[in-house]
Amino acid sequence: MADISKFSILTYQRKPGHWRAAITPVRDSGSGTSTETVISTVTPDDFASEVDAQSAAEKIIRRL
Fold first, then answer.
1. What are the pLDDT tens digits along the chain (64 aa)?
2. Which domain holds residue 59?
3. Domain count within the chain
């Protein structure tokens, strides 16, 4: 089970009543690398509320 604090969750409304969440791992800013690859995923389904999308993202992180 992954630690939720190691991820950033951004919820957004695709259109009225259709919410999704993007999940991105939090990177250490002290890596000294000038270019980094951002790896993220988006919840596969739309949700009726922002809270539901957030909960779905947290469930995905817990499964990692």
1. 888 999 999 999 999 999 999 999 987 766 555 556 667 899 999 999 999 999 999 999 999 8
2. 4-63
3. 1
Q: How far is CA 40 from CA 10, 14, 17, 21, in A?
A: 11, 17, 23, 10
Separation of alpha carbons 30 and 49, rounded Å: 36
Q: What is the 3-state secondary structure (H, E, C) of 2-60?
A: CCHHHEEEEEEEEECCEEEEEEEECCCHHHCCCCCCCCCEECCCCECCHHHHHHHHHHH
